[in-house]
């Protein structure tokens, strides 16, 4: 079955540091890939997405590139802020059929001033 | 356009009681999904419903849990005879009628269930 593996946290960075959160996936078809963010006490918000190989999703300074050859979708940001402190979930959804989403375990990011 | 609504936001039950969690999808969305997030874990799919139909309940525990999405009104996730292990955040998501090549779900704020 489908699965998503992402690096376990927590990840602690200083403000303005470079962020990478690794994510790899296993899927039978050609999935769409997502990063969701969950701020403390809130629900999930879609951060960015990519629907086919070599697509780059970007939003709020975050980027991730759909790498089919390495089955990866690593999240990056050049300069993190304290307000980026949250839990980040990598996820996939198989194309076609219905839209069940498979989530990774989540990576907690803490940015300190 | 209002987002996905869930209520209550927080629910406290004693062991053996029933818990009812409600989800109103975004306007125009006819697909609803329920997920459970246990402490320190990721989200796990529970059930997928369309209006009046359960499409996939492969993630639902075999006993005590049920879900519905009636023609009128919100989707309901019902947990009978709750136990402490049911304590979790329950998230609902919705999506429009599947027609596009990619799939995006819009999540509600969640209901945090605490079983005493």
Describe the structure in your own words.
The complex is a heterodimer of chains A (113) and B (116). Chain A is mainly beta and 113 residues long. Chain A is 0% helix and 50% strand. Chain A has no helices and 12 strands. In chain A, the strands form 3 sheets. In chain A, strands 2, 5, 6, 10, 11 and 12 form a 6-stranded mixed sheet that branches. The radius of gyration of chain A is 14 Å and the shape is globular. With 116 residues, chain B is an all-beta fold. Chain B has strands at residues 5-7, 10-13, 19-24, 29-37, 43-50, 53-56, 65-68, 75-79, 88-96, 106-107, 111-115. In chain B, strands 2, 4, 5, 6, 9, 10 and 11 form a 7-stranded mixed sheet that branches. In chain B, a hairpin with a 5-residue loop joins strand 4 and strand 5. The model of chain B has no long low-confidence stretch (mean pLDDT 90). Classes of the chains: A mainly beta (113), B mainly beta (116). The A-B interface holds A 32, 34, 36, 42-46, 49, 51, 89, 93-95, 98-106 and B 4, 6, 31, 33, 35, 41-45, 48, 55-56, 91, 93, 95, 98, 101-110.
